Amino acid sequence: MNIPRSRQNFLQEISQPDDRINLTKAALYIAQEEYPNLDIHIYLNILDGIANEIEKRLPPERYPLRTIQIINQYLYDELGYTGNNDNYYDPRNSFLNEVIDRRTGIPITLSLVYLEIARRLDFPLVGINMPGHFLIRPEFQDVGIFVDTFNRGEILFEQDCETRLTEIYGYQMKLQASFTEPVSHRQLLARMLTNLKLIYLNRQDLSRALATVELILLLFPEIPRELRDRGLLYYQLGYSSKAYRDLGVYLAIVPNADDADIINRLLQELSREI
């Protein structure tokens, strides 16, 4: 099987200990699936340049709020980065090269840009996998603030996060501790890919959806839902033996799944084809 070079690079990058994964490189390897001729060094250099410009503006005492303010001024006011409200589900919002070129994106990709700039400044930030809206926060004890990169680096407190959740879901939501837990590098990449997968599924772009699921499974090889979805995509694309294998593994892991009856019927159908 001819594995694309981008995927080999992605696998090599994520095979390291989580804290050593270079998020910029991993995200650009994802983008190379769509843009095979993409030169990742161009974008590494762009982020280096942004960080260097911000470095010149930082005071000797790097208090979190002041540092965030200076990053925000340069990133949003001078460079013009913005959240893409007009075309939120454009796949380009999920590709780091496009986000940097167009200076627009969705919460998770703008957060990735922000995190990677902060890392170059030795300013510790972490991603926060809040449902419906990805945030970041300073990794200092008891700071108690969050940064909304989609809304020009707006500073949020816990009550603001609850308000944001209520706006997203349309009913009163309590901010649970799990909503503000920092994510690993692998989890951040998986959420990026999940967003992209859903966009492709909604567009019925099955081949691209399949490629995205395959990348998710490189990060987390035994997620039952992703094994099932890959099996269903194989089925729809006519890869019967691959579909049979994945759907069989899915039921072996979760034999009492809510969709077990449907999957069993599919397996019976597939068994007659292979």
From TrEMBL:
What SUPFAM superfamilies does the record point to? TPR-like (SSF48452)
Top-level lineage group? Bacteria
| InterPro entries cross-referenced by the UniProt entry | SirB1_N, TPR-like_helical_dom_sf
Q: Where is the Protein SirB1 N-terminal domain?
A: 43-193
Any one Pfam family here would be TPR_9
Q: Per the similarity annotation, which family is this?
A: Belongs to the UPF0162 family.
Report the PANTHER family cross-referenced here.
Answer: F-BOX ONLY PROTEIN 21, SI:DKEY-261L7.2
Q: Identify this protein by name.
A: SirB1 family protein
